[in-house]
Design brief:
With 772 residues, the chain is of the alpha+beta class. It is 21% helix and 34% strand. Strands 5, 6, 7, 8, 9, 10, 11, 12 and 13 form a nine-stranded parallel β-sheet that branches. A seven-stranded mixed β-sheet has the order 3-2-1-4-14-15-16. The structure holds guanine and zinc ion.
């Protein structure tokens, strides 16, 4: 399954042994080119049928190149393969085809988890009243926007959706999908009986005319990606004439999709048998009306008999397995093992069936699918679960040449998944064997929308997971280390220059042993360092990048102390650790050691040498700043906390020695002015931290750094989006100048700031920046 050494060839659509009769991929001209790197995983065949090894494609360090909305390269990462494009680095993330939801009701997004009924009562009491609200165009527009946005947030790039009986609700969903260039199938529900009058098609002719108008506008429009699905709701909601009309439309236009519900609930099955005594069973009703065939997606199928499953197979009709819904409504347990019987395998895909289903997440749906199969003593591994949600969905919707695969030639719809999205998932992944199978199973059983880091449609990122305010692990959109410097003589900042080393956090910088060191969290989260040496002629040169083999989850802090350069950070387990480097630039960083006594943290620690000790300040879980110091002989001492534990701090602090005092600057939780304080060992009657004071005019700052330069204390602050300021104060007059903007320095990326440090008479600034 895994790509073999030496077999480094790209994957193409020809790689797939089952090209479907479906339509070819449609480019999206004008979609920006993109190159994305990560653990690529997709399928060339069905693992239920041919086994994992033959079915799975996995590229542990893979690259996707997308142009005009299509995948043009899919294979091992090499710098050449990126064709000069900037590479978005998702290296420790799993990239799979975007999920396909093969059965969902766009107009039920507002009534999930409606309590306490089984199917037929639930439809009357909860579903139909909600769908009646879609009479209002405004309501339909709002619902459609929420639905489409939520699909993408959950990593679903293609859905087969029922809308309501009102054609404008179908229009609204298509329009919202088309705006985003999504490949989405939907249909106006056909229903002319057993529901409130206001929710029924007035007659078959009117229903068909509305359907045809929608088809004309939205079914595979030139260059567009929307597809029409004829949607008779289910046998109990449709007259024979309605079913017949749907069947003849499909005969006339076999390129349309068809969808309906089948054998979801035992009472429903009995009712259908009563209503259609001329038919041999539920599925036979649809057969008799010409509704079976390739492109029909039957929802649920919980109570299909073996003979009916066989008929699904012979007619190539697919079944959408909707486990969260079947459990929520107590409908029953779909027999996945029997459906996938190798002798007559049925095409089975996954559906959320929102609002019968309780989540739009196909990861959550995989989770329930696993458990339903487990009750049947059928263990379904992560590969099979992901196949159901990707390639199997594409096949059910006859879109196999278009979506559901990462092979070159397909439309560039894919999803970036973080198997460590929550603390429990991170722990689980660490306890696992590190294989892709284990990562997939963890995602399937523990993941939901939080694990969807980014969703791409036609090569464009249409969703990126927002970093929560208190999320110490910002999403890793790799950017570059960049630097600038302030020239005291001319009073100007230089324009920022890139170093081309990838990072996504604020780099740290410090002068040490005649060199200027910059240590940063590379985009793989490993600490790296690079140094700058100023020559006698004033020019400078950068040394080689050194790797530390040490992971960090925070920005690092640097401090020279007792002949060594210390680098302090928090590791994957939130432990505060440090590395040291000696004064030989060619030597290696030491292995990491623990800052004993430090609280666990996900925030960047601060460090500086002061009064013959190395001081470290750590933001703890209670929002306080713990203060520790190392004296090289006697280890780490716990010195308590910074002043006023009542003040809630947001993120880390910055500390600096200046004028015989230890200064600290911190950002308050409420977004007010930056706070600062100082510890004066000479203070009478007793040394202590001053109460916090503010830097007036600095409100909105998210990251602050301070340092001593040229006899003054300097502060820089970063303010979203991409603004920075600086201010300074003197020793005798502890009042900051009004923060002034620095247009030359604009850090990029969530919550990244600017580190400042003096070197050879100039003030250097290091930051994380996009744009090359
Ligand atoms: N059967 C007919 N209509 C529906 C519906 O809206 N949801 C579910 N789960 N089953 C149905
Ligand atoms: Zn449904």
């Amino acid at each position: 399954m895994d790509r073999q050494e030496g077999a480094a060839a790209p994957y193409t659509a020809d790689d797939d042994p089952n090209p479907d009769c479906g339509h070819p991929a449609v480019p999206t001209p004008g979609a920006p080119p993109a190159a994305v790197r990560g653990r690529l995983l997709w399928f060339r065949d069905d693992p239920f049928l041919v086994g994992t090894d033959r079915a799975v494609r996995y590229e542990p360090d893979g690259l996707l190149v997308c142009r005009d909305g299509l995948i043009t390269y899919s294979g091992p990462y090499t710098p050449e393969a990126a064709e000069g494009l900037p590479v978005t680095d998702h290296r420790d993330r799993v990239i799979t085809p975007g999920f396909v939801d093969a059965h969902v009701h766009s107009v039920q997004i507002g009534m999930l988890a409606s309590y306490g009924e089984t199917l037929l009562n639930w439809l009357q009491r909860h579903v139909y009243p909600e769908e009646l609200r879609y009479r209002s165009r405004d309501y339909a527009e709002t619902g459609a926007e929420l639905f489409v946005r939520d699909l993408l947030r959950n990593g679903t790039t293609t859905a087969l959706a029922y809308t309501s009986v009102f054609a404008h609700s179908t229009e609204a969903v298509f329009a919202r999908a088309a705006e985003r260039g999504m490949r989405l199938a939907a249909g106006k529900v056909l229903m002319d009986r057993d529901a409130p009058v206001g929710l029924l098609d007035p007659d078959v002719g009117t229903a068909m005319a509305a359907t045809r108008r929608l088809i004309e506008r939205w079914h595979r429009p030139r260059g567009g990606r929307t597809v029409y699905a004829v949607s008779p709701r289910f046998a109990l909601a449709c007259s024979r004439d309605m079913l017949t009309a749907a069947g003849s439309l499909w005969r006339e236009r076999p390129d349309l999709l068809m969808q309906t519900h089948i054998a979801e609930n035992a009472d429903e099955v009995l009712e259908v048998r009563k209503r259609f005594p001329e038919c041999s069973g539920y599925l036979d009703v649809y057969r008799a009306h010409g509704l079976l065939g390739r492109g029909m997606v039957l929802g649920h199928g919980v109570h299909l008999t073996d003979r009916e499953l066989a008929l699904c197979r012979t007619t190539r009709s697919a079944v959408a397995h909707c486990p969260t819904s079947n459990l929520f409504l107590g409908s029953g347990l779909f027999r996945l093992r029997d459906a996938k019987l190798p002798a007559r395998p049925v095409e089975v895909a996954l559906g959320t069936d929102v609002g019968g289903g309780t989540s739009l997440s196909l990861l959550s749906t995989m989770n329930e699918a696993y458990k339903v199969a487990a009750l049947d003593r059928h263990a379904v591994d992560g590969f099979r679960l992901f196949h159901l949600a990707t390639r199997a969905g594409a096949r059910a919707l006859r879109m196999e040449r278009q979506v559901g695969s990462l092979a070159a030639g397909h439309e560039a719809d894919f999803v970036v998944l973080d198997p460590r999205a929550t603390p429990a998932m991170a722990k689980r992944v660490e306890a696992g064997d590190g294989s892709i199978g284990d990562a997939l199973f963890t995602l399937a059983l523990l993941g939901d929308d939080r694990a969807v880091e980014a969703t791409y449609v036609a090569g464009r990122a249409v969703h990126r997971r927002q970093q929560k305010k208190d999320d110490p692990n910002p999403p890793r959109i790799p950017r570059g280390v960049a630097w600038s410097r302030f020239d005291w003589a001319s009073g100007t900042w230089e324009k920022t220059s890139p170093l081309r080393n990838l990072t996504h956090r604020t780099p740290a910088a410090e002068a040490y042993a005649g060199l200027l060191y910059c240590v940063y969290a590379h985009s793989d989260d490993m600490l790296r360092s690079v140094y700058y040496r100023r020559q006698d002629d004033g020019e400078g040169e950068w040394g080689p990048v050194a790797t530390t083999q040490t992971f960090t989850t925070t920005a690092p802090a640097l401090a020279p102390y007792h002949d060594l350069l210390y680098c302090v950070f928090a590791d994957k387990n939130r432990m505060v650790r440090y590395l040291t480097h000696d004064d030989d630039p060619e030597s290696r960083w030491s292995p990491p050691e623990h800052v004993r006594g430090a609280p666990e943290t996900g925030h960047a620690p601060a460090a500086t040498a002061f009064a013959d000790r190395l001081h470290v300040v750590v933001h703890d879980d209670d929002g306080r700043l713990a203060w520790l110091a190392r004296h090289s002989e006697d280890g780490w001492a716990d010195l308590g906390h910074l002043p006023d534990p009542e003040v809630e701090i947001r993120g880390g602090a910055s500390i600096a020695a200046y004028a015989g005092r230890l200064y600290a600057a911190v950002v308050p939780a409420g977004g007010g002015d930056v706070l600062w304080t100082a510890y004066d060992p000479e203070e009478v009657p007793r040394p202590g931290w001053w109460p916090y004071r503010t830097i007036p005019g600095s409100a909105g700052t998210h990251t602050v750094r301070i340092c001593h330069y040229n006899g003054l204390l300097y502060a820089t602050g970063a303010v979203a989006p991409r603004e920075t300021w600086w201010a300074r104060q003197g020793a005798d007059l502890p009042v900051w100048t009004r923060p002034a903007p620095i247009p030359e320095i604009r850090p990029d990326g969530p919550e990244t700031g600017v580190s400042i440090t003096p070197y050879h008479g100039l003030l250097y600034a290091f930051l994380c920046r996009d744009g090359w």
